[in-house]
Each structure stands twice: as C-alpha cells, then as structure tokens.
Structure prediction request, 556 residues.
Amino acid sequence: MSDKKVSRPCHHCKSRSASAPTDTSKIHYEKFWLYRHCSSVQQRDRQAQKAGQLFSGLLAMNVVFLGSAFISSMIFNQVAITLADVWILLSILKVLCLFWIIYYLLGTSRQPHAVLYRDSHAGAIWIRGSVLLFGTCSILLNVFHIGYSTILVQCKSRVEIVFPSIGILFICTQAYFLWHHSKDCIQVQHNFTRCGLMLTIATNLLLWLLAVTNDTLHVEIESQLREVERRFSGNETTLCTCPNTTICKVFQKGYILLYPFNTEYCLVCCSVLYVMWKNVGRRISHHHVLHTKPKFKLQGVVFGPLLGTAAVIIGACVFMIYQIQATSLAPSRQVFVIYYSYYIVLLPLMSVGAVIGTIIHALEKKELDTLKNPTRSLDVVLLMGAALGQIGMSYFSVVAATEAKHARHAGQHTVAAELPGEEETTLSSKQEHSQTPPGKEEDTKEQNGEAYSQRRVSVLELGQEIRKASLSYIHTYSHLSWKRRVLREISFFLVLCNIILWVMPTFGAHPVFENGMERSFYGYSTWFVIVNFGLPLGVFYRMHSVGGLLEVYVTA
Prediction:
C-alpha cells in the first residue's frame, strides 16, 4: 500500500529551470515534454494524496458509526447490547491500534528516507506534556477500576478486569508514540499510515463517547449508598455492594476524581493524531522551518503578573474552601455563592482584556504568519469547538435556574464552629511562654543586637541586588512600544487566569453537578451526559487558550 514512487519529486524540472534562458516571456512551456511530465507527476501525487485521505476518512467514519451504534443501543436497550459488549468491541479496536503503532515504531519510521521532514509547529511541548499528564491519570483510573472490580469479582464480569488492563497497555503505547513521533512527516507507506492514524482517532473518539455517556459506576455507587440506608432501616436486599473497607473506598473515590482526565486524554490524543494524519507525505519548504524560535522571557510586564497572581491566589483559596465544604455531608449554599461570585468577577475582566488586546493587535502593522500548516488550522477549529462545551452548559444552567428557582434543595445550613475559650487559652499560653526571666534579659539583648546587625547587612545587600534588577527591568520595559507592552500585560494576565480556571474544574470543583439544581431539573442521567460532554471541552478550551496566549506574549 505504499505510494512512495508516486510522491518522488521530479528533479528534472529543477535542472531544466536552472538552465532556462532569462527571457521567458515568449516561451510556451506546454510544448516541452519535460514540463508536461513533471506536471503529470505532481498531479498524480495530489490525486493519490486525496484518494488516501478519502479512503482513511471513510474507514474512520465507519468505525465511529459502528461504535456509536453499539453505545446508543446499550443506552436505550441494555438487554440486547450490554456494556460488556461495548467493552469487547473497544478492546478489539485497541488491540488493532496497538499492532499498528508497534509496526510504525519498529517498521515504518525506521525505513530509509522515512522521516525527511518534521513539522516544527506540531507537537508543542505543552501538548505532549498534556498527553503525559492526562495519560498518567487515565492509567491510575484504570488501576482503580481493576482494583474495584477485583474486590467485587464474585458479582462482576471478567470483562471489567480485562478491558482496563488492555486500556493501560494502549495508553502507555500511544503516549510513547505521540511523544516521540508527533512531528513526523512520514514519506513512506502513506495509505497504510493514514488508515492506522484514522483507526486510532476513531478508537479515541469512541472511548470519549463511552466515557461521556456511561454513568454505570456512578449509579452503582449511589445505589450502594441507598443500600446502606436500607440496611440501617432493617430492609436488606441482595446488591453487589462495596465492603466496608478502606481500600474499596479509595478505589471508588479515586475513580470518581480521575474520571474527567480520561475524557481529556482522548480529546488531546485525537488532536495530535489528526495533525500527524495531515502531515503524511507532506514536504516542508524552507519557508516553513523556524530558524530562530522565540523564547519566553519575563520582560515588558508588570501589571499583568500582579493581577494574574492575585487572581490565582484568590482562586486557589476559593477552590480549597469549596473542596472542604463540598465533601461534607451537607454543603452550605454560601460556598456555591462564593464560587460563582469569583467567576462573575473574573470572567468580565478577562473579556474586557481580550477585547482590548484584539483591538491593539489589529492596529499593529505587523506581518502575520500566513503560511498554511495543519497545526494552525486545527487550533482555530479546536478553540471554536471546545468553547461550545462551556457555552452549552451555561445555557442549560440558565434555563434550569430560571424555570426551577423555587425547586432548589432545602435544608442546606451553614455549620460554623466557634471555640473562643480555646482561643483565649492558646493566646494566654503563648504569652506565658514568650515572657523572659529577669536574670537573662541583658544576655538576650546582646544576642538580639548582634543578630539584628547581621540581618541589617544581609537586608542591605539584598536591597541593592533588587534595586539593580529593578533598574534593568525598568530599562527593558521602557524601550518597548506601548502597544507591545499592553499586549504582553494582557496576554500574561489571561494566561494566569486560564491556568486557575483550568485547575479548578480539572481537580474536582464541579458545582454544576454538585449544587443539585440542574440535576433535579433535567434528571440525573441527562445532566450527567451534559456535564461530561461540556466539562472536558471547557477544560480543553482553557488548556489550548494558554498555549495560544503564550504565543501572543512571546511574539508581541
């Protein structure tokens, strides 16, 4: 299935054009056989590339439709198609992808002249770092799933142990493949490589779709909680419940906390694999090669880091308060008010900064990077598509809040613990310990005087170093134009804001599901699907925004 011969460049055209006369106004190149031959070779090359892309795209489309049919059938008719059937299908696809990735690593990429070009825009370090981070969390998720199923092996299917085991092997192999070969522009076995990449993309899409729609374990955990309540009330039923052991509770809690990372991993892998698919057979000219890559330097910014750091610190405090309250049995309404208030203040500031930055960037008379490459095209599509997740969830929440404001959960009271007696005792004990005996006052004063003089010298030296660094920084800051300064300030502020807005939902802050309003309005299963569809896209949007804003900061 190799079209290596078709994609071989025509060297006769270059030699012919080099020896051509300078006056070419009256020459009809269509009459020359060499010109017609080179044109036909290039045309056949383009046709072969389009045919390979079409065939591999059709393969991925059929695989996605087949898997979607299985998953939809499992949702609407769990008797005919069970979750185990879906797992078996996805396991087969994972094994096929594993075989192709191993073949690419050991065979295709090691052939002579296999990788002549590497796309400098593809596989940025933050993208590959995201693959490793989310891949590690997905591996831990599968480990928790295996441990949970092993404890309940008497009432669990063997497939629930085999499927995550194959998943761990698939995640490790795919992460290694994307880390080392995400920039490849492969020049051999075009069609086979395209089909392998598209099969892997389709498998990741199906894994994402299953993770979005499958709430089996979450429902099972809620059923176990109800079962515990029945046992306390004296009505025991036969249910596959988790034993009252610490290890089982750890597996349950770990699975729930790491669940969003798996969906994020699938989306990131799909984006990297798509760029690789577009780069198959691509020949990069010298105009596309970055000779000098701009480096990140903390210059030309003062207010952006200050405001951004303040936003990060306040967001971290809000996040910790929320996590402490949300994990309690009866979270107070006040913690949700604090969380939403933080967003209400921060998001308008970010919007104003983005609008000002866009206007200033448009006013700059600067040559834009208009060279076509698949990474830039994909980034635009991903940013627009990922933004739809957060926008969609916001509209669903607005409708639920408007129509069901009288149906909110009642009985949420704030539990405030005040211990003034203990505080007074602690303060008095500290004062007693701080008192110095009368006989040792003079020795203490001498020691304090020496220590004070030493500290004074060190502080003066530190102050001189800070003054030199400040003067140097101010000198660099003043030499930048006001447009570049404002762009850097805004982009740095937005980078820090997007980082904290990425951290909060990624590591467990999910008020849209935990406040109970939307869940009671739409129903558990429906709102579970909406949250699992929109939340990973929102996190994905924040992550991609950080990469784009860093590029704006560096090039400003």
